[in-house]
Design goal:
Strand content: 15-25%
CATH architecture of the largest domain: Alpha-Beta Barrel
Number of strands: 19
Structural class: alpha/beta
Bound molecules: pyridoxal-5'-phosphate
Strand order of the largest sheet: 3-4-5-6-7-8-9
Shape: elongated
CATH superfamily of the largest domain: Alanine racemase
Number of domains: 2
Oligomer: single chain
Mean pLDDT: 97
Order of helices and strands: EHEEHHEHEHEHEHEHEHEEEEEEEEEHHE
Amino acid sequence: MGDCHFATARLTVRLGAIAANYRHFVALCPGVEVAAAVKADAYGLGAAGVTPTLAAAGCSTFFVARLEEGIALRPLRPDARIFLLDGVRQGTETAVIAHRLIPALNSLAEVSLWSAAAASRGETLDCAVHFDTGMNRLGLPAYEQPVLAAQGKHRLRHLNVVLWMSHLACAEDSESPMNALQRDRFRELLAQLPPACASLCASAGALLGREYHFDLVRPGIGLYGGNPSICLPNPFSVVAVLTGKILQVRRVDSGESVGYGATFRATRPTVLATVGLGYADGLMRVIGNKGRGAITGVSAPIVGRVSMDLATLDVTNVPASALQVGADVEFLGDTISLEEFASLAGTASYEVLTSLGHRLPRHYEPAA
Ligand SMILES: *Cc1c(COP(=O)(O)O)cnc(C)c1O
């Protein structure tokens, strides 16, 4: 959204930090192509807002989940390679081809479908082939893999495989034995297949080291400032800054309650600030009486329930000079990390980002 300096609540997206995070992956993975996962509207930050920055930093390959996401991205990045993680289904072939999207084929049935689409047009169509090496979610299951290995020449004769891919289930935990197991299964598969570019890693996998990188990594969360690893300090810069403005400040006596359900009761004379940010903006209701905001870096607990448009903070310890109506309160940013917010909300950084409300104006802070 354009001019939103007056906005009560807003999401500031630091484009300079996205570029720096992209470059961090490039430095971590020398000689390896760094693509970007921009599914779910770039994890809620806005694909139209962030893809020009990624492209300027050197990214020319993007991954989306849904066909609609690929169609929306195509005019924004006319020259980019766009992979569709959902693959292709009966009836979607024409749209996939028209928008020059590359499906990740997830089963032998999808290989046949895409191959038939190619044959009926007398063309060779690009594709990725996704192998399931232990996640048991999407991709050719183990029992279909030998068929492709043995009959690949025939089954893929109308197709141009530009990427063999798989996905790690436990990469956030560098100690998990699943990582090496899946990597080795992927290597064994590649040895039986015609040579093509190969990709195993999302953000967390990229942190596991060279033997996981293959030819292309496809990070998402790290680009957007989340910590992909549960073992390491976060090497990525803060991208998403969620703020709301103070709408009202009041004093209450000891014994007064706050908000719906009167779930908080003051035990001392208390200064309260009511802030224009609520669960409709992504400040999840579950962090009522648990989370915090920060005013000029000073922490203030959220008291009472978060409502749709508002949250109330105990600002007794915040210097009065910082408590002006219209002052910004941070709920995510340099003081409050995605990981802190996610842990209080009982979820992951990914869901915090994708839960940011539609109505929040996104302000894209240009790279310096
Ligand atoms: C979402 C996704 C990614 C990006 O994952 P992050 O953990 O956000 O880096 C990469 N590959 C696949 C298959 C995905 O679904």
